[in-house]
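In response to reviewer comment 3 from the previous cycle, which asked for concrete evidence that the modeling workflow produces usable outputs, we include below a single protein chain processed end to end. The sequence was submitted unchanged, and the resulting structure tokens are shown without manual editing.
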Amino acid sequence: MLEPNFSPFPELTTERLLLRELAISDAPAIQPLRGNIDVMRYINRPLTLTVEDAEKWIGIVVDSLVKNEGITWCICLKEAPLEHIGTIGLWRIEKENYRAEIGYMLAPSLQGKGIMYEAIKKVVDYGFKEMKLHSIEGRIDPRNVASGMLLEKCGFVKEAHFKEAYYMRGSFTDTAVYSILTPYREAINTEEPAMESSAVL
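The workflow returned the following structure tokens.
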């Protein structure tokens, strides 16, 4: 069974980005992003209306991290390592299935510049190489065409389309599921320990 361990926190870097641990000091930047109805249009989560709401959300992220149940990175440009511009994470970890779900969000002013592509590629590689995941999935609202195209560009394949799979803001909404399999299969040890035989009385 998968046994993720996020201590110490794994900072990741790419050509342009620093992916670091979230801090309470990021709350003022998180609030307007997660409180933006256009950003959250296809995300089944309540709007973050206050800085206090953002702090509570960070608390949930930290709790998940401490319990090794999920990990979320703060996305920053290398030249501004304290400035939150988005988040990306691996959550809903199915330890018995060596599988996790990826989620991501980026400030609108920085979209379309290849930043999220860079972040997803790095996090997916971390999930496979370091966490020893076998597969990673992305669940999106199929109306979010840009997100679907981004996942496909990162190597994900569309596997399913569920009709009216969840209820969001007054209506039932479809879900599209994309996934990608590890290229590091030989690095994953999925062998279960041998069971001792015993007589049945």
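The two ends are 30 Å apart (CA to CA). We consider this sufficient to address the reviewer's concern, and the full set will be provided in the supplementary archive.
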